[in-house]
């Protein structure tokens, strides 16, 4: 089963990419994002996509322009995650055959993203919306809409977010920070997976 958990590897170095990616997949996380404000992000994405593209959905975060989407696709990425709702980014992603997860915080952004073809919505930063806000918005979203809580979420509050309507999560510093070893990531990823499995 592919868990609806996106590991956000902000700050990862290319020479860490394969080892960290392998540890995440082994732990049970197969959706992996390298933010484009990381060092040489396209190199890291290419290394992971070449090694694990058949086993994982590898892609980029902090994607702000259609040109970024093209670069990620050229590197072998299959997923585009953004902090904002930019219809041009969503449309370009879908035209290239990539999964699109734009950042949203308001009903207007949610519906704009869905109209443009988004595969799921990244509630960001989720602590600003809160679980009560997500409950209210979920009541008017199409029932099949997938919402991912990102920012201020972790194993300790997975249950609250799922009960509010979230289907998944983006986890950054709870899984990876610059300087973490492969073993560090493996331990944290296993904890996240166990907590997710307990409540999903």
Automatic annotation (TrEMBL):
Pathway: Carbohydrate acid metabolism. Homotrimer. This is 2-keto-3-deoxy-phosphogalactonate aldolase. It comes from the Bacteria. Keywords: Carbohydrate metabolism, Lyase. Pfam families: Aldolase. It comes from Litoreibacter ascidiaceicola. GO terms for molecular function: lyase activity. CDD domains: KDPG_aldolase. Coiled coil: none annotated. Belongs to the KHG/KDPG aldolase family.
